[in-house]
Design goal:
By secondary structure, this protein is of the alpha+beta class. It is built from 18 helices and 15 strands. The protein has helices at residues 2-16, 24-32, 62-88, 94-111, 113-120, 136-144, 153-164, 169-199, 201-205, 207-226, 230-236, 242-250, 252-257, 259-262, 323-339, 360-370, 383-387, 415-429, and strands at 43-45, 48-50, 294-295, 312-318, 344-350, 376-378, 395-399, 405-410, 456-457, 476-480, 491-499, 504-506, 511-534, 541-569, 573-580. The strands form three sheets. Strands 9, 10, 11, 12, 13, 14 and 15 form a seven-stranded antiparallel β-sheet that branches. The chain has a six-stranded mixed β-sheet with strand order 3-6-5-4-7-8. It has a two-stranded antiparallel sheet with strand order 1-2. Strand 1 and strand 2 form a beta hairpin. The radius of gyration is 26 Å and the shape is globular.
Length: 581
């Protein structure tokens, strides 16, 4: 039990600092400030306030109650939400819209105190609720239905257990510990809001204005969440926690602890090592099963592995609200456009993380919004997911023309490698086929703004746009050489770097040279040390790096410019990506 709790807590903590929590942070912060501010110290004698020694503000339990509500709500509805909705005959997205309604009402209550009093009035009768914190737990319950964590192996195991009804004490421990881990970073923000409201004089002097501002922010965020506007911001950020998620997913102890969620179906699939560059032979591809509705097929008829023999098939497991999946979709669209006429068939299997993702209308809207033209099947009961022994969103299973699974990739990344494998299988199926140039390096969705340099990955598993001397060899110290004339939208490394699967780490004389076209340049770095940025015609800039992976801004210009920069790293700094704005 201790191992399961630790794995759940670790998975939750990784999720709690990932980009997917960003929409929750301002909500939690302003919810923390919504409690009553401390009264000034003193006693009244007639009409005169006589000062007394300052009184330590009473401990505000509102942040804890909000977070407790999130933990309870998320745990309960992740495991049993579908069962509850089905028993009550309610639509799959009822809980999500309920949470949005709660968030909107709380925002209105901050703006209009009389309405806030009316909303909280039903809770006055509950004897154990402190009147200064009325409704905080209920707000947390509502927020728990809106909290959509990034996908990972722990969440996948929880979701599979809930969807299949295989809920035991192990799953409950895993779920609660995951929810607590994911909520702890949120507690920091709620507590910060509470302390500001109690201790900062400027807030106490203008509390009414701050409450109105907080209410407006909550309502605006409710609208943004309702229309998925926040997805745009989340997609634009680098997936700085993906490396940690991958390590958790590939850890043997984690895999053993989560094994009951995988099941014994299609045991030959275990012969494929997720993320391996070499094609393997991992048994016959399981048939699609237990699906509810199909999109982009003739007459809405189900796709079939049997009917697709003779083609190279890429099965993509995804969920429409999963930010990791949204980042991967542009690569699938590019491959579909380049290789469909040459024998590639992509099949999307939409396996929902949460109850609201089971709505056929929501899935159809996402398919239309993303411009997906390949077949997509709804796997609401995770029957096909289980048949493929899947553990991740997104996940890709590559199947050859004979129907044999040849490669598996969990999570984001490895796009160039996956495309190479697709091309190899297309050649195996039809040696005379004339393949176009690889498309992965020019995926339009990575550009976002016309002409802007695409996001650039430095590590072995996801390297893109490297153009210089030296070869990325994982788990080794490699000597590189800078390109004296760096081609557009490429980079080179100089000096010696320790090459990893998710990042490269500087040693002695480590440098990088980057050619870019952008107004803003960000570099995801971790470790302790400095990075010196040199751009011809501009003064050098020194960036101080400290702590876990974070995005550091290297360039901030009003308009996009074509430039070449050279970066010099002190030893011990891990570099992950360059991204551009």
């Amino acid at each position: 039990m201790f191992t399961l709790a630790f794995i759940g807590l670790l998975g939750g903590l990784i999720t709690g600092v990932s980009p997917c929590v960003l929409p929750m942070l301002p909500i939690i912060f302003f919810a923390g400030t919504a409690g009553k501010a401390a009264a000034p110290a003193g006693r009244s004698e007639g009409d005169v306030l006589v000062a007394e020694a300052p009184v330590e503000p009473r401990r505000d339990l509102r942040p804890l109650k909000i977070i407790a509500g999130i933990v309870v709500s998320f745990s309960l509805f992740t495991l049993t939400g579908s069962v509850i909705l089905s028993a009550l005959g309610l639509p799959d997205d009822f809980l999500r819209w309920g949470g949005l309604t709660v968030l909107t009402l709380v925002g209105l209550g901050l703006i209009f105190p009389a309405l806030g009093h009316w909303i909280e009035k039903p809770f006055y009768r509950l004897p154990k609720i402190n009147r200064n914190n009325n409704g905080a737990f209920v707000l947390g319950l509502g927020l728990g239905t809106l909290y959509v964590p990034c996908a990972g192996p722990v969440l996948a195991a929880i979701t599979v257990a809930g969807a299949t009804g295989n809920i035991g004490w192990q799953t409950v421990v895993l779920t609660v510990s995951f929810a607590i881990g994911a909520a702890l970073p949120l507690l920091i923000f709620a507590s910060a809001g509470s302390r500001i409201s109690q201790r900062v004089k400027a807030y106490r002097d203008h509390a009414r204005g701050f409450r109105i501002g907080g209410g407006i922010v909550m309502i605006l965020l409710a609208v943004a969440l309702a229309f998925n506007i926040t997805d745009v911001i989340q997609r634009s950020l680098p997936s700085y926690t993906s490396g940690l998620e991958q390590k958790v997913a590939q850890n043997k102890t984690v895999q053993g602890a989560l094994a009951p969620a995988i099941g014994g179906a299609s045991a030959d699939l275990a012969k494929c090592t997720p993320g391996a560059a070499e094609l393997a032979s991992c048994g016959a591809a399981p048939e699609f099963r237990g699906t509810q509705k199909w999109f982009n097929t003739p007459g809405g008829q189900p796709a079939s592995i049997g009917a697709l023999k003779g083609k190279v098939v890429l099965v993509d497991f995804w969920a429409y609200s999963c930010i990791n999946c949204q980042r991967a979709t542009p690569h699938l669209l590019a491959w579909d456009k380049a290789y469909r006429s040459l024998g590639l068939e992509i099949v999307g299997i939409h396996s929902p993380e949460f109850a609201f993702e089971k709505s056929a209308a929501n899935v159809q809207s996402a398919v239309r919004k993303e411009g997906i033209r390949y077949p997509v099947g709804q796997d609401n009961d995770l029957a096909t997911w289980t048949a493929y022994r899947n553990q991740y969103w997104p996940a890709k299973y590559l199947i050859d023309a004979k129907g044999t699974v040849r490669a598996i990739n969990f999570g984001e990344g490895n796009y160039a490698q996956t495309e190479d494998q697709i091309r190899q299988l297309l050649k195996d199926a039809n040696p005379s086929v004339q393949l176009p140039a690889a498309v992965d390096g020019s995926v339009k969705a990575d550009v976002g703004v016309a002409g802007r340099t695409p996001e650039t990955y430095l590590a072995y598993s996801r390297s893109t746009n490297l153009n210089g001397s030296g070869k990325l060899t994982p788990n080794k110290n490699v000597a590189f050489g800078l390109n004296p004339s760096q081609p557009d939208d490429t980079y080179s490394l100089g000096g010696t770097w320790n090459v990893g699967t998710q990042s490269v780490t500087s040693t002695q004389g480590s440098q990088a040279r980057l050619n870019f076209n952008a107004s803003k340049v960000y570099h995801v770095l971790s470790g302790q040390g400095t990075v010196t940025v040199s751009i011809p015609g501009e003064p050098d800039k020194t960036i101080t790096v400290s702590g876990t992976p974070n995005a550091y801004q290297l360039v901030d210009k009003p308009t996009a410019e074509r430039k070449t920069m050279t970066l010099t790293y002190s030893p011990g700094i891990s570099a992950f990506t360059f991204s551009f704005g």
